[in-house]
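Technical note accompanying the year-one report. For the benefit of new consortium partners, we illustrate the data format agreed upon in the data management plan: each record pairs a sequence with a structure-token string. No post-processing was applied to the example shown here.
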Amino acid sequence: MTDASELPEDTAYESNNLEFMTEEPIDPQRLVVISNRLPVALKKVEGRWKLTPGSGGLVSAMAPVLRDRGGTWIGWTGTSGDVDKSLITDFSRNAGYDLRPVPLEEEEVRGFYQGFSNEIIWPLFHGFQSRCNFEPNYWHDYLTVNRKFAEQAQAVSGPGDYIWVHDYHLMHVAWWLRQMGCRRNLGFFLHIPFPPVDIFVTLPWRAKIIQALLEFDLVGFHTYRDRRNFIQCVNLFNPGAKTRGRGPVVTLTVGERTTRVGFFPIGIDYKAFSDTARKKSVVEEAHEFQRALRKRTIILGVDRLDYSKGIPERFEAIRETLKRYPELIGKISLVQVVVPSREEVGEYKALKDEIERLVGEINGEFTRPGYIPIHYQYRSLGREELIAYYRAASMALVTPLRDGMNLVAKEYCACNPSGVLFLSEFAGAAAQLQNGALLVNPYDVVGVAKAIHRAYHMEKAERSQRMRKMRETVRKYHIFWWVDSFLRAGFGRTLDDFPQEMTGVHFASEMGEPHE
């Protein structure tokens, strides 16, 4: 068994156990969110700029939080050079919060985003050291771009604002802000796993990354395991470091610097997903989806194109299932949706080719007249279409090789009251959903095949009981609880301290895989 068992489900997440960072009251004016990407993307189509709402877990999480609260979101537009800022202004007016773009040149994008972030940090933090490209110039670009983000934050924020920086792209922002003399309240949340010491030490800039993260007032992770790994790395490079406290948030002191470190499992807007799943149009679309597959048992996979998601291993598990249990041929079908991502990167192109080769092999082996075992779709899904898929699927295979959380697992639970969730032991969500999900090792294709066979023959009462437990957890620890927990730990405030105003119409974001 993995670290999923390290978190007691009933008590580990209670926000009222959190200590507060500040001794004196602070009156925050606005919440300032900083992430690599804005919640929108700008792209030139036939000579005209087009704005499309962003997708991914961070947008799904933070857009409802900032909506109509007058805060600010700082990020890159997704393109280089000058853009049509009027589109951004229109979006801000409708969303009820300001967008502040950080312009990046093509060379900076290559070194900072494609290079350091996605050729070094992403594979390393997910445990794929062999995929890392430790190009020295990437580090310079990473520092340069982090400074740009810090300068924008310094320019648009006020003394009472709370600056919340997100994810591995921007781990050096606090260090730059402190160099500029900024004394704002600074929080950081890592949306991917934090690796154990023996993996982290392979990073050439390891000590500098640790030093930069300690400049934040609060550093947050998804799981206890990630927090433990971080503290162990801090201790390795700072032998005199002291940790005190217990519960989700502890205090870490290095020299004269004190940083709060905690774990806060991110959630979803449970009510929004659950309500949408009951809409008449969604129910009808789900029934149509089931009819198209001739009422077979649908097993659903929804993932962004990435080697950490374990898609080839999942296909091998389906192959093993049909070989080991031939009576299931014609009775189960995997519907695998792969959301396009980083298509300009050679490694991702190769992964796409491998996925499509496996689909062809397995379908060629097990297809029968009127039956195809794997239905493969390489595209993004609209929100209601995705929820209809969730509702229609009897089972969901969420089997990443390593994942910080994985919100698809939680979205499926919110939308389907009678489904079976297969969940990787190496997903952060396993800590919360272990009492209802069928935990599997994605590398063990025989074990996954046995789990699928077990679920196919599972009694309806057991299915419902398992899903009921998971739905209650997802409902209780929702996205707004996550924000409240982080803000409370950071400086003794909750989301209610940033009052919501009623304004205009909002853009509905596209829903795909939960992490970008």
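Partners are asked to follow this layout when depositing records. The two ends are 28 Å apart (CA to CA).
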